[in-house]
């Protein structure tokens, strides 16, 4: 015996039809999915109304975010990089720093007045 019997052929045909119908039923129409109405809490409802597309507040918030991003990227980050470089990699003796006066010892001459520093007085006592 070769091939399917009449009962087997009928069964296969019915299974194919069922599979086709099942696949066709899996496709969503424009009306699907049917979802229940969304209930928002008070905060979410406020933001939903506040940021409604095309609203004035939404445009203002968008402009503020754009400006903030521009300032951050074009001003603050480059300024931070420049300050970092100047602080850690800049000149070792920046301008405006005054060096301390040289040490003065007894017997030295002060250049401005020509005065000679007298020697220190010996302290009484038998210390070494």
Mean pLDDT: 87
Beta content comes to: under 5%
Helix- and strand-based class?
mainly alpha
Write the element-wise H/E pattern from the N-terminal end onward.
HHH
User: Given the C-alpha coordinates, what overall shape results?
Assistant: elongated
Number of helices: 3
Q: How many β-strands, per DSSP?
A: 0
List the helices and strands and how they pair.
Elements: H1 6-26, H2 42-50, H3 56-89
Concise structural overview:
The protein contains three helices and no strands.
Structure commentary:
The mean pLDDT is 87. The chain is mainly α and 128 residues long. The chain has helices at residues 6-26, 42-50, 56-89. Helix content is 50%, strand content 0%.
Which features characterize this protein?
about 130 residues, mainly alpha, 3 helices, about 0% strand
């Amino acid at each position: 015996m070769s091939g399917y019997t009449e009962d087997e052929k009928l069964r296969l045909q019915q299974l194919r039809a069922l599979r086709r119908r099942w696949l066709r039923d899996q496709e969503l129409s424009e009306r699907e999915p049917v979802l229940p109405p969304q209930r928002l809490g008070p905060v979410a409802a406020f933001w939903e109304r506040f940021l409604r597309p095309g609203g004035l507040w939404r445009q203002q918030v968008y402009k503020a975010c754009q400006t903030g991003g521009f300032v951050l990227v074009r001003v603050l980050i480059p300024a931070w990089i420049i300050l970092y470089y100047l602080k850690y990699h800049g000149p070792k003796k920046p301008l405006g720093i005054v060096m301390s006066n040289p040490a003065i010892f007894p017997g030295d001459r002060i250049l401005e007045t020509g005065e000679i520093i007298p020697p220190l007085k010996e302290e009484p006592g038998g210390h070494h």
